[in-house]
Write a structure and sequence with these properties.
The complex is a heterodimer of chains A (651) and B (150). With 651 residues, chain A is of the alpha+beta class. Chain A is 44% helix and 22% strand. In chain A, the strands form 5 sheets. Chain A has a 6-stranded mixed beta sheet. In chain A, α1 runs antiparallel to α2 and α10 runs antiparallel to α11. Chain B has one domain: Beta Barrel (OB fold (Dihydrolipoamide Acetyltransferase, E2P)), CATH 2.40.50.180. The longest helix of chain B has 8 residues. Classes of the chains: A alpha+beta (651), B mainly beta (150). The interface between A and B is medium-sized, with 27 and 29 residues. Chain B: One of its GO terms (biological process) is chemotaxis.
Chain lengths: 651, 150
């Protein structure tokens, strides 16, 4: 066993807790009444304080202690989770993170200032004196089940000064009234000094089916005011109960915690390597079993094969991380940026459950930060401009992820001004990226923003505009063997789509032979295999295949790979696709399916775009894995030139 | 210098012994289409895929097919700050020996059959010469790493 540094363990744990805290705070800003969020933030703080003290992070725990004290007021309903409070709490959270990272590098004055801000935010609106307004309605059959509302009132009265208000509820016409049914609902005003949990306890045993809201009410309200009519400021300053008693919530959180396990990433990598080797060994065993014609051996080999493939899937599953973990981080970024830039922006995310390999997720963070910053700084216009063009003040930034075939597409879309093609062109000409007057399509001009050293923003802001960024984005995504798509509609916004291959350590592959070489095609990209028709016309020098009425360009891999020897008489076409585009790959022979352990090619071969990696076959030889995305790109160019040809002929 | 001497055609080369990981009999070589001839192959070294380099390409030698003397020397060395593992095809592997540092000489600017840029120095051993290749420079230039970085 490896011994671990306890401080490191704490840092890992703290990172997770701080993230929960931040998410809760950000949510709290939108739903200040949500008691769940307050308790989840409070729990995170409390755990941090405890383990901080245990691991000797005294500065951390003493700071959190004060932070927690402030927050406890919110939990008890004595203070409201106002915007200034959330802002101060977010700063406090950053301060805690800094303290954990390096205590000595942090100025204690800063901590004190944050705490002062927190205290101010807490004390400013003091809804302390206002009464509780409890409105409830029991289920129709409550009387039949033996619940007596009178006892509830008696219990509430025992808590403190209590006043029962009427609450108008539609009652059935006289003739249809069933005396066993409870038609009424009530509102009760209770003295503000009473603790919230005490009121909750009154309803402890009947909580499940009833409607119940407990709010701070404005002291000077009308006698017959109902919960629905509560003025908005009272609603904000209130705490609406949506959850079961807190003890339940925390025990379910406890359950979640024991169900997950923190494992160092390198151990998972090691496990993946071992499974990879096992898959290779298993392939050899299967091959041997078949050639020996020993039924007993074959049956064992089949068992091993089944086990290996399920072990492979499980292991791969452990490395898959939902992209939501990454999206979560950007909420804070958007929150801060929209404050700094004075632009109102809502971040809408979707497809958080889309899973990607953890290494891909990690490398995706920086490009996404760049893209979000760019969208908010350049893409989204200031509010005044938005109003002028008839859009709402609040801009929307959409971040979404979805599976598309063998790829995952991550899209960042804003509803801003769109790209200014004329300005990009002028800038590109000025900086010598393109020749003045060069004939380029709009899309091609727009793609220039991915060139190194390109920036159209006239002013260099602290956020973006230094001309680094977009080329870094493109570089990183291409490093992951993905691609970047750009779509822009002037006046309506810009959409950047990152396409990432699902490249994981092991994939299912289709093994083919070209000349004397064997190659693997990722099975997820394969649509079908057909025989190459004898008359497969090279139409005017270009190769297209008629697949059920659709023209599919095809490429002879023999030519592409300069294969030796004679071509087989009956050549096969493997039709692969990526997104909308399909392409046929002509091979000599289709050998069959195999489990493919992807081994990265060394730096010496990193310039080869037609291969995404290599794998080791059952007989121990190495086979190259075709990079379908790049091959399809190649086919797309063929397709475009054909279209141009057709257009030229028509003209 | 502690060195492993190998024969490429009719010349003796010395590889730094500390960078040599293992010596293998010939294994099936997978051709990499469209790769530079120098690193045109891949081999399986106990479960890892390793590029196979042919120094004979760099020195413009003939490349007869493998025979019973052919070996693959797996080397590992630092290249631009990162470790690189590669197989080197050798027509024959001789021995691990000590090359006297005093006998090593700089490469003469003229009168060389081989590109001097790729040779670090020339040592003497017995009555013959030993070529000590500059592996870093060879791999950087011949495998197109410079172009990839630019």
């Amino acid at each position: 066993m490896t011994s671990t540094d306890p401080a490191e363990t704490f840092r890992h744990e703290a990172a997770g807790l701080l993230e929960i805290l931040e998410q809760s705070l950000l949510d709290l800003e939108k739903r200040p009444d949500d008691g769940d969020l307050v308790s989840s933030a409070f729990r995170a703080l409390h755990t941090l304080k405890g383990s901080g003290a245990m691991f000797g992070f005294t500065a951390v725990s003493s700071f959190i202690h004060d932070f927690e004290t402030a927050f406890d007021k919110v939990r008890k309903g004595e203070a409201a989770a106002t915007a200034p409070l959330v802002a101060a709490a977010l700063r406090a959270k950053d301060h805690v993170a800094a303290l954990i990272a390096d205590e000595s590098a942090v100025d204690p004055q800063k901590g004190a200032a944050i705490l002062r801000a927190l205290a101010e935010a807490i004390s400013a609106p003091a809804p302390n004196g206002s009464d509780w307004l409890v409105s409830f309605r029991l289920p129709d059959n409550a009387l039949i089940h033996g619940t007596n509302p009178k006892l509830l009132f008696a219990e509430m009265q025992s808590l403190g000064a209590c006043e029962i208000l009427d609450r108008s509820v539609p009652v059935a016409p006289v003739g249809e009234i069933d005396p066993d049914f409870l038609y009424l609902g009530w509102a009760v005003r209770i003295d503000g000094a009473v603790e919230l949990p005490a009121i909750e306890d009154v309803f402890l045993f009947i909580r499940d089916d009833m409607e119940l809201t407990i709010e701070r009410s404005d002291g000077g309200k009308q006698e017959n005011a109902t919960a629905e009519e509560a003025p908005p400021q009272a609603a904000r300053a209130s705490e609406v109960l949506r959850c079961e008693p807190e003890s339940d919530a925390s025990s379910s959180a406890q359950k979640d915690k024991t169900a997950t396990l923190r494992v160092p990433a390198e151990r998972l990598d090691e496990l993946m390597d071992r499974v990879g080797e096992l898959v290779i060994a298993q392939a050899r065993l299967s091959q041997l079993a078949v050639s020996r014609h020993d039924p007993a051996l074959v049956s064992i080999a089949e068992d091993i094969e089944r086990l290996t493939s399920s072990l492979r899937d499980t292991t791969m599953g452990t490395r898959m991380v939902p992209i939501g973990t990454l999206f979560g981080r950007f909420r804070r970024l958007v929150h801060d940026l929209s404050r700094d830039l004075g632009k109102q922006v809502t971040l809408v995310t979707s497809g958080e459950e889309t899973e990607l390999d953890k290494t891909v997720i990690e490398q995706l963070a920086d490009p996404l930060v760049h893209l979000i910053r760019n969208a908010m700084d350049h893409g989204i216009e200031p509010s005044a401009e938005r109003r002028a063009s008839g859009k709402g003040d609040t801009a929307t930034l959409r971040l979404s992820a979805a599976h598309r075939g063998a790829e995952v597409a991550v899209t960042i879309a804003d509803d801003g001004a769109g790209l200014d093609t004329a300005r990009i062109r002028a800038k590109a000409e000025a900086s010598g990226l393109i020749a003045p007057g060069a004939v380029l399509g709009e899309a091609d001009v727009n793609r220039l923003i991915f060139e190194a050293g390109f920036s159209t923003s006239r002013s260099v802001t602290s956020l973006s505009g230094r001309g680094v960024g977009m080329d870094v984005v493109k570089g990183t995504i291409e490093g992951l063997r993905g691609s970047v798509d750009l779509a822009s509609e002037p006046g309506y916004g810009t959409e950047v789509t990152l396409r990432l291959p699902l490249t994981l350590a092991i994939i299912d592959g289709l093994l083919v032979r070209v000349g004397s070489g064997r190659y693997t095609i990722p099975l997820a990209a394969v649509e079908e295999c057909i025989e190459l028709p004898k008359n497969a016309g090279e139409m005017r020098g270009r190769s297209f295949l008629d697949v059920r009425g659709e023209l599919v360009p095809f490429m002879r891999l023999r030519d592409l790979f300069h294969a030796d020897g004679e071509a087989d008489v009956y050549q096969k076409v493997v039709i692969v696709s990526s997104g909308q585009i399909r392409i046929g790959l002509v091979v000599d022979q289709i050998i069959g399916n195999n489990q493919t352990v992807i081994k990265q090619l060394s730096r010496l071969h990193s310039t080869l775009k037609t291969f995404s990696g290599a794998t080791i076959l059952g007989d121990g030889t190495v086979a190259l894995i075709l990079d379908v995305m790049n091959l399809v790109g190649f086919g797309q160019k063929l397709e475009e030139t054909r279209r141009d040809d057709v257009l030229a002929r028509a003209a | 210098m502690h060195a492993l001497t190998i024969r490429l055609q009719d010349e003796i080369f010395a590889l730094e012994a500390t960078s040599v990981r293992e010596i293998l009999d010939t294994v099936p070589i997978t051709r990499v289409p469209n790769a530079p001839d120098f690193v045109g192959g891949l081999i399986n070294v106990r479960g890892t895929v390793v590029p196979l380099a042919d120094l004979r390409v760099v020195f413009g030698m003939q490349r007869p097919p493998t025979d019973q003397d052919t070996r693959i020397v797996v080397v590992e060395f630092e290249l631009d700050g990162e470790p690189l593992v590669a197989g080197i095809l050798a027509d024959k592997v001789h021995e691990v020996t000590e090359i006297d540092a005093g006998s090593m000489e700089a490469v003469p600017a003229v009168g060389m059959r081989w590109p001097p840029a790729f040779i670090r120095s020339i040592g003497k051993r017995g009555d013959g010469f030993v070529i000590i290749p500059d592996m870093q420079r060879i791999f950087r230039i011949e495998a197109g790493l410079d172009a990839a970085a630019a």
